[in-house]
Automatic annotation (TrEMBL):
Domain of life: Eukaryota
GO BP terms, alphabetized: NAD+ biosynthetic process
Keyword Protein transport: no
UniProt-listed InterPro entries: C-N_Hydrolase (IPR003010), C-N_Hydrolase_sf (IPR036526), Gln-dep_NAD_synthase (IPR014445), NAD/GMP_synthase (IPR022310), NAD_synthase (IPR003694), Rossmann-like_a/b/a_fold (IPR014729)
Family in the record: In the C-terminal section; belongs to the NAD synthetase family.
GO molecular function list: ATP binding; hydrolase activity, acting on carbon-nitrogen (but not peptide) bonds; NAD+ synthase (glutamine-hydrolyzing) activity
Pfam family, one: NAD_synthase
Protein name, UniProt field: Glutamine-dependent NAD(+) synthetase
Domain CN hydrolase: 1-172
Catalytic activity: deamido-NAD(+) + L-glutamine + ATP + H2O = L-glutamate + AMP + diphosphate + NAD(+) + H(+)
EC number per UniProt: 6.3.5.1
Length: 630
């Protein structure tokens, strides 16, 4: 037997912090050597950090670091370097990766790693970065070692550790035997293109000794999407908090699904910190003592007590707010342990309206009270923007009030679907320092709330999840209650569909209409589908400018509309889409002549009723809401 001990790692690196990065690299090498490993692989760009972006164009950056092996993207390419190398007899492959987290993505990565050695045989060592290295991405680790299609070692996907090393004892004779058993591999190897080799005067393998047993395959560990939403953003927030030198977070907590999700994620972060301290992680302990400003001899032992030190939640209610959301926010804050404030802002709103009346001689009214759409929109926006100003004021001054040093980071809580539709006020309390859910869909957040109510033990989240989403920016009347999906003219489920078609499948208005005509055939007529597609693209175009000032958000979803990196498009559109909408109208007329698209009135009504039950929208389109303007 030719036995070889190999090691791979997850490293929590920070772009351009060469001292920290080098320290982590050396620590991983020391641990690999202590385990007896002859080969160690680290993540891609482990000395510079992965997210240096334009810093890579600077002479300094390249002078401070230099890497070689199969790198991140080459794992997923059709003609990967390992294929020719395997046919030439190479048995051990190393991939230095910088792969970021995305919901439901890990299985694709693991399958690629397993398939890499299943088709050609061999040992595949995969290393990755882990953590927030200074941007929107969270690198989700999961270093691993695969042999002939089986995983024999797997590191954590989400962790607060700076260094994690995994090793395995592998048998290279098993690789030779595996390849020899595949006749097609032998045939292709006989016609290989030779690659250059460099001979070195030492051996990596150990001879067999009693008690040396190759590492057995392990069961692959996957997190469900709800766990990914809990742990990924939590670890990202912890890295951001400790590296920014901030003293904590402040969140405008409305009692709705989005802000409650953010609060639960911060609570989860506090739980993870306490667990790692209990496990003896000295780095996490040191960071918690510094951020929480503990006195000498004090040690964090309870997540609620830790949250009280570094997490402020603020309910900023008006006359339009309900007692339900107020009480939900208070109960959730108590369960998490945050320092919670109830701040009525009606008096501040009144001052602005009185000033406006003094200047113009007019006082705007809500639409439900007889006002115009412009008045209704203006009244909603002023409430939303006052909350943003107050949030930042309290984030900078509340530490001073409590005799603490430093400042608090303001957390935003708009989700990916609202960003896509533009259903948010520009410069409202969605404008923050960072946003942990900015690329998570509403549907995924509601599933997360159900999960967190049980697994994080925040029982009030079950009530939050069951409540209909509402902005509470208009007066509540006996015959009127503001609801998000009615305001938007579409459901959150439809928004997820539109988002995936627009970004992932690269659909414009016409191709989206064509796709949805087939997807929704039997439920909606072509003319109804056309109305929905045109309504979406109209408001997408009107509100695209808001993406230019979107709060930096944790990247979790492939159809994220943020225009810093993931969705590079113009922000000034012809909102009428004259050519595209004309083509859709032509297609509707052509389809109307085709009998298979004919739908009797009774069937249309049944389809609409079914659509309501499944989240398909039969909601009012074009009502005034804070998404419509600036």
């Amino acid at each position: 037997m030719r036995l070889l001990r190999v090691a791979t790692c997850n490293l929590n690196q920070w772009a351009m912090d060469f001292d920290t990065n080098l320290r982590n690299v050396k620590e991983s090498i020391a641990r690999a050597k202590a385990a007896g490993a002859a080969i160690r692989v680290g993540p891609e760009l482990e000395l510079t950090g992965y997210g240096c972006e334009d810093h890579f164009l600077e002479q300094d950056t390249t002078a401070h670091a230099s890497l070689a092996a199969e790198t991140c993207e080459e794992l997923f390419t059709a003609n990967a370097p390992r294929i020719d190398l395997a046919l030439n007899g190479v048995e051990v492959f190393m991939n230095a990766s910088g792969s970021h987290h995305q919901l439901r993505k890990l299985n694709l990565r693991i399958d690629s790693i397993r398939n890499a050695t299943q088709t050609c045989g061999g040992v595949y060592m995969y290393a990755n970065q882990q953590g927030c290295d200074g941007g929107r991405l969270y690198y989700d680790g999961c270093c691993c070692i695969a042999v002939n299609g089986d995983l024999v070692a797997q590191g954590s996907q989400f962790s607060l550790k700076d260094v994690e090393v995994m090793d395995a004892l592998v048998d290279l004779d098993a690789v030779s035997s595996y390849r020899a058993s595949v006749s097609s591999f032998r045939e292709q190897a006989s016609h290989r293109t030779n690659v250059p080799f460099v001979k070195v005067p030492y051996k990596l393998c150990q001879s067999f000794r009693n008690g040396m047993v190759p590492t057995s395959p392990v069961q692959v560990m996957y997190h469900c999407p709800e766990e990914e939403i809990a742990f990924g953003p939590s670890c990202w927030l912890w890295d951001y908090l400790r590296r920014s030198q901030a003293a904590g977070f402040l969140l405008p907590l409305s009692g709705g699904a989005d802000s409650s999700s953010v609060a639960a994620i911060v609570g989860c972060m506090c739980q993870l910190v306490i667990k790692d301290i209990e496990k003896g992680d000295e780095q996490v302990k040191a960071d918690a003592l510094r951020i929480g400003q503990y006195k000498d001899g004090e040690i964090p032992t309870d997540s609620r007590e830790l949250a009280k030190r570094l997490f402020y939640t603020v309910y900023m209610g008006t006359e339009n707010s309900s007692e339900d959301t107020r009480s939900r926010a208070k109960r959730l804050a108590e369960e998490i342990g945050s320092f919670h404030l109830n701040v009525p802002i009606d008096s501040v709103v009144s001052v602005f309206l009185s000033l406006f009346e003094t200047l113009t001689g007019k006082r705007p009214r809500y639409k439900v009270d007889g006002g115009s759409n412009a008045e209704n929109l203006g009244l909603q926006n002023i409430q939303a923007r006052i909350r943003m100003v107050l949030a930042f004021m309290m984030a900078s001054l509340m530490p001073w009030v409590h005799n603490k040093s430093g400042f608090y980071l303001v957390l935003g809580s708009s989700n990916v679907d609202e960003g896509l539709r533009g259903y948010l006020t520009k410069y409202d309390c969605s404008s923050a320092d960072i946003n942990p859910i900015g690329s998570v869909s509403k549907q995924d957040l509601r599933a997360f709330l159900r999960w967190a109510a049980i697994h994080l033990k925040y029982s009030s989240l079950a009530e939050v999840e069951s409540a209909p989403p509402t902005a509470e920016l208009e007066p509540i009347r006996a015959n009127y209650n503001q609801l998000d999906e009615v305001d938007m003219g579409m459901t959150y489920e439809e928004l997820s569909v539109y988002g995936r078609l627009r970004k992932i499948f690269r659909c414009g208005p016409v191709s989206m209409f064509q796709n949805l005509c087939h997807s929704w055939c039997g439920r909606l007529s072509p003319s109804e589908v056309a109305d929905k597609v045109k309504h979406f693209f109209k408001y997408y175009a009107i509100n695209r400018h808001k993406m230019t000032v979107l709060t930096p958000s944790y990247h979790a979803e492939s159809y994220s509309p943020e225009d810093n990196r993931f969705d590079l498009r113009q922000f000034l559109y012809n909102t009428r889409w004259p050519y595209q909408f004309r083509k859709i109208n032509e297609l509707v007329q052509e389809m109307g002549k085709d009998s298979k698209w004919d739908t009797p009135a009774e069937e249309q009504l049944a389809a609409q009723t079914s659509a309501q039950g499944s989240g398909m929208g039969v909601v009012a389109a074009g009502s005034a809401n804070p998404s419509a303007g600036f």
